Amino acid sequence: MLPHSTFDSRAGFQTNSAGTWRSLMLVTMIVFGLLLAGCSTTPPANVTPVTPFKLSRYLGQWHEIARLDHSFERDMIKVTAQYSMNPDGSVKVLNRGFNTKKQAWKDAVGKAWLIDGPNKGALKVSFFGPFYGGYFITALDPNYQWAMVVGPDVDYFWILARQPTIDEGVKSDLLKQARTIGIAVDDIIWVAQ
Hints:
19% of the residues lie in helices and 38% in strands. By secondary structure, the protein is of the alpha+beta class.
């Protein structure tokens, strides 16, 4: 046994000083804080979720028309999102797309909850346990045929539609709105359906 060491039952290992436990806890809290910082459920600046909003009308299948690039969707085409109710009142999210490099379909199942009440297009979504990110519907067709969505920051952006294509006039209007809220519209990927 090392001189002046003690067995710390909280950590399950030997420490050389009481300060080691405090240092370990500080590092753990910093790492956890950084993880949570990437899981914001507050809308980014200049992003206002739509009101009024009816979740029951938003449920069903949506085609991903456009997005910003992220590793979890890289090389994906024919991407759809299917939203349905879970028995616990949350929303089941089933994202599906075809990975052109792997030549295989890829599914991701998540869970979403409304935030800020039932009349606002603001949800928190998780695909990884207790970590949630914001999902903010910032533009929505009155008949729920297309939607523009921003995530926890303006680096996460999607245009969704009930059909695999969208009217060019609507596309142009949505791009103007996207530019206004800080979306890098020149980096948008138009998804092959």
